[in-house]
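Structure representation:
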Amino acid sequence: LFHERNPIAPTTKYSSKKELLFDTKDGTGLKSEYGLACARSTAPGRSQGLHFLHVSELAYFPGNADELLDGLMSCFPADPAGTEAYEESTGNGYGNRFQRDVFNAYCEGKYPYYAENGIPYAWKNPKDNWVLIFIPWFAHELYRREFDNEGQKAEFSEKVKLKVFNKDLMSWEDSEETKLINLYGVSLEQLHWRQWTIENTFKGRVQKFQQEFPTTVVESFLSQGSNIYPAELCDIVQAGCKAPILIGDVVDRMGKTKIRPNPYGHFSLWSKPKADQVYFMTVDSGGGKNERQKREKTDPDPSCIDVWDRVSGEQVAQWHGHIQYDLIADVAELVGNLYNRATACVELMNHGYTVVAGLKAKKYPMYENKPNEPGWLTTGRSKPQMVDGLYEGARDGSLQIRCMETVAEMRTFVEENGHYNAESGCHDERVDTAGMASQMMKLLPWRAKGKRNEVSLGDYRSKNIPQSTGYVEVRL
């Protein structure tokens, strides 16, 4: 069809159902062609030189998708100039090649690439050249349904304004339609079409509509497990998130922690350290592979260090990224020194024991699960406490999450067969550090250590005593 409509179409040399070769008028040939291949084959494109590639409905490819895509991508020339590759699909759950590629480019929405009227439609991971383009259902002009008369429209308008009771949050809140109007400016005609499609096409199955006609990237992928943190709760928490006031890398300069500005750095800061405040850190070393990651050949989780205000429960800073595990303790000390040598709570999973050993050698203050046994032990008993504690803290505001990526991980955190994990192809290290923070808010003392004595936070607030000088002072 492209060839037939092309106003400058070259001469056809050969045409079949799977090939279209081009020629010149003198018969010397263009050495250019269109080719079509079936996803059931594992060798399409091999030994060819590709310049343009369109992979359609990748999420529905059979189990050989990785082998097929790896073979195709290796057919591009070493110099990518003048080449284009597209992966296109409707979502089909988690764990497939398409979902992993989407989330790799999406980066939990951290790097918007293109937006209109404040709504992002594309994202780009700075580590590669792939761009994720997402077209929500409301961007299509055809997805609207007119009302029979103004009376019907007025009745529909009043209906969507009604509050609905959320059993998860035990509160009355705006309807889903009202949220769509407020967030994206969706019209009543578009909502009318949405309601009709849910009722008639999907027989009332809202989740199926969300997969086929998603509003957000995450909504495109129907969860196989039971989502722990409902979308309504995540929406509320996300409303409290904000952009960091500083992004960069933490470095040591003459024994003091400094932040070297870098828009793609691992360290994000939301609130500057205060000399008279008490902070604590939660540390997930990452690394290690569970059975699912081994089976799907996905990378281990990155490391994450969260810093929290002990009084308000506010998330004030975060370090996140891949690093050699023997260096995590060094980074944790740098971050902790910035915040008055904040007490470190280290999860004793995978390489957590290495981190604890490193901090112990530095005589760095740590939370102890038992006397002289530093670290937080995640077990079948403590994991549900972390999960439920984060739910409670997010709901009542005792934890004030500022990181958008933390909320993004909450949206894809599920319970499956009695186990709590991120959905296949997603991460949960930020959920773990936030879950530990919910427990530290209950377990760590409400006091700060000075050089000579221990004082309550109430004394600090009343300013009846001088500030402690037992910490490294850092000015930002």
Observations:
- Residues 451-476 have pLDDT under 50 and may be disordered.
- The longest helix spans residues 382-396.
- Residues 83 and 322 are 30 Å apart (CA to CA).
